[in-house]
Amino acid sequence: MIRHLLLISTAAVIFTAVACSKPAAAPAPPAHPNISGSWVRPLRDRDVGGLPPLNEIPLTAWAAAKLKAERPAGGENQDFANTTDPSLRYADPNGYPRISLHPMRFKIIQTDDYVYQLWEYNQNWRQIALNVPQDPDPALNWYGNAVGKWEGDTLVVNSVGYKDSTWLDARGLPHTQDLHLVERIHRMGENLAFDITFEDPGAFTKPWTAHLIYKPSPDGSMTENIYTISDELRFRERFLNQKVNIPIRR
Amino acid sequence: MPVSKSRIPDPKSQIKRNRWDLGFGIWALGFVLLTSTPAIAHHGAASIYDMGKETTIKATVTEYVWTNPHVELGISTSGGTKTELLLELGSPPNIRNRGWTSRTVKAGDVVTVTFHPGLRGAKIGVVMKMITADGKELQA
Fold first, then answer.
1. What sign does the dihedral A133-A148-B25-B22 (CA atoms) show?
2. Residue B116 placed within a domain
3. Mutation target among B3, B47, B70 for the A interface, most CBs of A within 10 A
4. Number of domains in chain A
5. Residue A44: what pLDDT?
């Protein structure tokens, strides 16, 4: 008898709980497009955009003279042995957006407050703070100071505070500390597009825009690829017979 | 170097995607698509290697160093242990994607390697492909 009463009361409790429960709410749609994941811009592909030809970039007289004096390690006027490329001569960080022109992949991690870009090359990274004002007196950084906000399906990023010692690309394209980038990052089908507008009155007579397309890359662990000045000097000593005047690993 | 009064952009001067931008962008993209070249290496390969020439030899590995900026492969054509020709491969992550590892070869292995030789008789080269002793072919 007691057993029957227990069974009946348990069944009643379960029935009441089921009857009174509300149907599960449908998951809210994502507030913004998902741009997270691993991305790569294979240089052998013809549909990945890039910076315009140098003669089509509206250089100031100062920038034109500086560009002419540089000795890039690749391209038409390459002089690897005597290059002035700071990323080779001093193993400096590539800076931005040059590192995004590198053929190695990067990963995007997206949160409500930040978007992080993690580059496989040299394990460099930058953060884009969302929905906050730009620092009125930003530090001068290799990767600038970036703030962003979503405008519909596009992440609009404003960045300033760039060290002027970096090149904007491997050709030696210069800039000043006044470089201001406006990036519009958005999905293009399965790809990710960066439309980058360059504004720098010291280097460019008017703003200009580059379009970069990134393709999905297999996700997973990033590999370590850290390149040091010792690596560079060792290479120069062994392959170019250049004398090295500081201690390096051999 | 020009220096302006402030690094802070005036909100009123925020760049707008006006017609000029859009037109130039489309034109520039088209130009780049038509003129872009294959991958640019860590350095100007054309300034130190004869990229129009290919050499294939069977040789003994004297050293294999998994390092940045590029992996190094030393070989001897006389079967000795001293490096007679120093070859470079791609960066570690790039050639790892093509099947190479830090243990692909070791000193003493006999390999068949194809490379662009150094200019002006320099005893260097940049590897295009290699066939290991057990017949495995790897692109560099």
1. negative
2. yes
3. B47
4. 1
5. 83
